[in-house]
Write a structure and sequence with these properties.
By secondary structure, the chain is α/β, with parallel strands linked by helices. It has helices spanning about 15-20, 25-35, 55-65, 100-110; strands at about 5, 40-50, 75-80, 115. It is built from four helices and four strands.
Length: about 120
Amino acid sequence: MDHVAMDVKSSPDRYAEAAGCPGLRLEPIEESLRLLRSGVVSYELRTTVAAELHDVDTIRRMGQWTQDMGVDPIPAFYLQPFRDGESVLRQGLHTPDESSLSAMLEALRPYAASVAVRG
């Protein structure tokens, strides 16, 4: 393996909700983050953002949490706007508007060398 793209669903306090798994344990996720953050392999982090599940504060807490798992800056962190479809976590989710996406991107910027909206 020469590159890993890891989905990070949300900040720790909202992770179970965003993943759709009540009672989800964060330890295995944190272990994966620590391994990636150790620099053994090239990686990127990404989050699919939905207006009902993510706001600027959630993104900021997520950025801080992922940064705390290692020393070097996160190489790349992408926000992917939610897209409705048949296999979504739950009905009623929406894509954040452009200004919300921009604000989320700015909130994430201090925690990664490169941040962008993808998709």
